Amino acid sequence: MARTIERLAIVGLGLIGSSIARAVKAKLPGVAVTGHDVSAAVRGEAQALGLCDRIAADPAEAVAGADLVIFAVPVGGMADAARAVAPGLRADAIISDVGSSKAGVGAALREALPGHLVIPAHPVAGTENSGPAAGFASLFDGRWCIVTPPADAPAGAVAALEAFWSALGARVETMDAAHHDMVLAVTSHLPHLIAYTIVGTASELEEVTESEVIKYSAGGFRDFTRIAASDPVMWRDVFLANRDAVLATLQRFNEDLTVLQQAIRRGDGDKLEDWFTRTRAIRRSIIEQGQDDAAPDFGRKH
Amino acid sequence: MARTIERLAIVGLGLIGSSIARAVKAKLPGVAVTGHDVSAAVRGEAQALGLCDRIAADPAEAVAGADLVIFAVPVGGMADAARAVAPGLRADAIISDVGSSKAGVGAALREALPGHLVIPAHPVAGTENSGPAAGFASLFDGRWCIVTPPADAPAGAVAALEAFWSALGARVETMDAAHHDMVLAVTSHLPHLIAYTIVGTASELEEVTESEVIKYSAGGFRDFTRIAASDPVMWRDVFLANRDAVLATLQRFNEDLTVLQQAIRRGDGDKLEDWFTRTRAIRRSIIEQGQDDAAPDFGRKH
């Protein structure tokens, strides 16, 4: 039988943690939410924003009595955050998280909390902004949340976590943690790495000034700057945690880039046109499946 | 003394050409506009949309009497389009274009139209859509238009072209054609190449299906699909025309990507965090200078 979540603890009140708090308040008003953040400044901000029913300065106190504890901290900080709350955990609490890599995070949480039930999850949603003020209740609407339960997880607990994310507006999918990490390496980590790279490259050329790059960014460059403005610590941790899958997809990207580079050098217009024609179809599918706006230019105001 | 534009001919009625027609109708109602497109289907669509005062099937007839002729065709098609209109050109007409590479296009237009005054220009604006229905009058508002006059261009003609683009809402800058091509290689061509590459890579992996890539694209990938949905022929021509600058900036990008790849492999978190922190500032500047929306996630609806 599916358990019901009545008391939620959120550890980490940045963009995602604060969005969960807001979404619970809006869509699951019966659930009591306690929030904690390691930073006193963030706790103060969360308090002022009225994000949670209660903000606890002490991590163990924050999770006391909670039947669901969600860690919403950079993936490299999961183990420390888990050890800090351990003394306060209910024995039967569901332990989950929102990290962008799953195999490593699951292992870290299980090691930090032996005997506890860990069911990692990842809402594939976000913006380039950070901190408790950046969150909003509709962040998860229509986005996918990937749950990666271990093989021996009790079905009732998995169902409760899935129902929780569905209630927040997400569509839920389950998969193996290793497969999640490969999928996200392609759909999220590699794009961030490429965006960070090109924005860095453009800002350090001798021939073109940074001020020119900014001025003429509407030619395409500005699209990359959005995700290259994402939280540096969060992304540092993602690349370290999902290293193997990221390096594997990066190798494939490099091969393809070399092929196109050679086509440009040789003046092989047919190869370029053929490639560019195929990529058009992907965007059409993304829009059809509701994963992006159909409006031109992302719906930017003109 | 600056000349005044009274009769405009637009050759090529796609996204940019049709946006010029619309912007002139909205902001320079005194200017008579004749449009031409090599495609009968596009001419019919332009006629139905009422884009121009007159649509001419014959290219030479389209430019007859025009004091400004703007070629808005893929850069590889400029020379043919110019030869086609040549018999109808006024001797003192200003010949311009909107192509994304300038040194090659300027040379091609001058060679095709000996004795005529050619002043290339490039409005740094667009969307991922194509065709006459995709244009809109406000496309150039607040965007930069780069004019690359040859050293011997009469000041009055240059001023007239600049005034024309200002009147359409653009901010105007002049620079040397070779420098333009280097600037745009960084701010537009390399980003398109990278986006085309990664979208192709993601759609052909064995480990992750195309349907998974589409489903979980909100993690960052979808940002790249917008410009990778741009017109394939236009972009084929841009890479062939601006080959040297594109390959030079691509080499710099590859160096930087290798550095970050090595940092990931070695687990050098400090290097990653330092890099990711620097790139944040660039986006802030782009927003401050009005070249992108401040709204999170490009202002996408949530």
UniProtKB/TrEMBL annotation, chains A, B:
Keywords: Amino-acid biosynthesis, Aromatic amino acid biosynthesis, NAD, Oxidoreductase, Tyrosine biosynthesis. GO terms for biological process: tyrosine biosynthetic process. Pathway: Amino-acid biosynthesis; L-tyrosine biosynthesis; (4-hydroxyphenyl)pyruvate from prephenate (NAD(+) route): step 1/1. It is an enzyme of class 1 (oxidoreductase). GO terms for molecular function: NAD+ binding; prephenate dehydrogenase (NAD+) activity; prephenate dehydrogenase (NADP+) activity. The keyword Oxidoreductase applies. Its EC number is 1.3.1.12. This is prephenate dehydrogenase. It comes from Sphingopyxis indica.
